[in-house]
Amino acid sequence: MPDTALPPRPRQRDPDQTRRSILDAALTEFAEKGLSGARVDEIAARTATTKRMIYYYFGSKEGLYAAVLEEMYGGIRDAEQALDLGSLDPVAGMRRLVEITFDYHAAHPEFVRMVAVENIHNARHLEHAPLVADRNDTVIRTLRDLLDRGEREGVFRPRIDAVDLHMLISGFCFYRISNRHTLQRIFGRDLTAPAHVAAHRRMITEAVLAWLRPEG
Amino acid sequence: MPDTALPPRPRQRDPDQTRRSILDAALTEFAEKGLSGARVDEIAARTATTKRMIYYYFGSKEGLYAAVLEEMYGGIRDAEQALDLGSLDPVAGMRRLVEITFDYHAAHPEFVRMVAVENIHNARHLEHAPLVADRNDTVIRTLRDLLDRGEREGVFRPRIDAVDLHMLISGFCFYRISNRHTLQRIFGRDLTAPAHVAAHRRMITEAVLAWLRPEG
DNA sequence: TTATGGACTAACCAGAAGGTTCATAACCAT
DNA sequence: ATGGTTATGAACCTTCTGGTTAGTCCATAA
Q1: In terms of C-beta density within 10 A (0-12 exposed, 13-18 middle, 19 or more buried), how is residue A174 classed?
Q2: C-alpha angle with apex B187: B185 to B193, nearest 5 degrees?
Q3: Where DNA binds (residue ranges) (chains A, B) (predicted)?
Q4: What tens digit of pLDDT does each residue of B194-214 get?
Q5: Is the pLDDT of residue B6 over 50?
Q6: B182 at the A interface (CB within 8 A)?
Q7: Are B15-59 and B69-212 equal in CATH topology?
Q8: Is the CB of B46 under 7 A from strand D?
């Protein structure tokens, strides 16, 4: 009997590639279905490898989830660290920061969904991603610097809390993405339509600047 | 042989009570764990009745979920319809509306979580709760009325879109509740501390009013 | 009294889902 | 080449879970 065995697909060993592929597939699946809604088999099916590899590299479903979460926060950190607002005057710098925040959320709904999912789980897994807290220091420091300079120049009100302001900004940017489905159902509006995107971008920018302006 | 039977717990038959009890238990469980994270057995255990009754009254896990969701939106509708802003001047009325919205979200984190969960599922179940869309007309109409009057009196800018404004307001109110766990982890702040609550309440109110003020 | 139908229950089931076993192929240093 | 380590794959196992079956209980109307 001749050798009828299928030519064994040349197994290429590439740990990094395999890890990446799992992480990418998991991101999609978790962002789409949430932690408990996601299926490990489904994630495996999305990758070129097998379920076994998920456990080999990440230990458990939750381990994988935590890894994805950490990865996720890395992205926005990079985006924010990239901009150099030191050269701009406070008002222009603030405007720029709001716009960047708005644009990042609009461009990365998976990030928004992952954070929303993590909040459903009371941010339990953030514990296992300790370096996440770091990145936010960057934004807060940038914000504080802008506020200080603006106050000195008399274009911003004094005693604004940077964290509160950050929440005001990212709150709206986050909300319009995280809640776009219910909003769409209820108001019958396509929030991704360019006209609405532009209007929202202008609204949050101007609202923030209006609020910061001294002598209300 | 004497009658050793335990006194049979007098089974009280009360369909409404049973339904309510299931709905309450389900709300807790769904808000806590999400749709797929919630366990029907767990919900049953929280009630005085059994799992079978859940299927008897609601047909399926998703049917129960949809029922809870609808119930949920009912609450905020009532709260908003209760206030009569017609007698207040536009600025005071707007301030009041923002404050009510803020307070409602702060007081009802379960509502916030249910909506967040529903968005993870792309608002798929809102289809089965058709009367939900109604309630929002109320807010939008109230808002539009305030905006019109304010514009006529020259205290608000013209051509403000009521839905956009609604999003600006509820966006922040929603976000500080929906994301409080990740925010807490990252900034190490207890967002429920009275000082922060008060600061946030003032911030969103003033930001909205500042933005609405004419001649930016 | 008895019959009727809504309210309720315990036990069960099939399939799904997370996690594991064991064999083995590819790679690398010697 | 060779021995040991890392990476990979297919099938398997166990537990859980949504949903069902088959039947009991009880208030009321006839």
Answers
A1: buried
A2: 90
A3: 39-58
A4: 999 999 999 999 999 999 999
A5: no
A6: yes
A7: no
A8: no
Task: Give A104's contacts (C-beta < 8 A, 6+ positions apart).
Answer: A76, A79, A80, A111, A173
Structure tokens at A160: 């604004």
Model confidence at A127: pLDDT above 90: no
- In terms of CA atoms, which chain A residue is nearest residue B136? A186
Residues 97-126 of B with CB under 8 A from A: 113, 115-120, 122-123, 126
Closest CA to B176 of A186, A40, A36, A169: A169
When mean pLDDT is compared across A115-129, A162-176, B195-209, the lowest value belongs to A115-129
| Positions in chain C where some atom is under 7 Å from a protein CB | 6-11, 16-22, 25-27
**According to the 3-state scheme, what is the secondary structure of B71-133?**
HHHHHHHHHHHHCCCCCCCHHHHHHHHHHHHHHHHHHCHHHHHHHHHHHHCCCHHHHHCCCHH
User: CATH assignment of B69-212?
Assistant: 1.10.357.10
Q: Does domain A65-212 have CATH number 1.10.357.10?
A: yes
* Cβ B57 to strand D below 7 Å: no
A75-86 average pLDDT score: 78
Would you call B183 and A167 a contact, using CB atoms and an 8 Å cutoff? yes
Per-residue pLDDT tens for B141-176?
999 999 999 999 999 999 999 999 999 999 999 999
CATH 3.40.50.300 fits A14-59, yes or no: no
Domain B15-59: CATH architecture, name and number where available: Orthogonal Bundle (1.10)
Q: What is the mean pLDDT of residues A147-155?
A: 97
Mean per-residue pLDDT of chain A: 89
Task: Give me the residue spans of the domains in chain B.
Answer: 15-59, 69-212
Contacts of B118 in chain A (CB under 8 A): 181-182
Q: Is B26 on the interface with A (CB under 8 A)?
A: no
Distance CA A64, CA B39 (A): 23
Question: Any chain B CB within 8 A of the CB of A33?
Answer: yes
B21-80: pLDDT as tens digits: 999 999 999 999 999 999 999 999 888 888 999 999 999 999 999 999 988 888 777 777
- Write down how long chain A is: 216
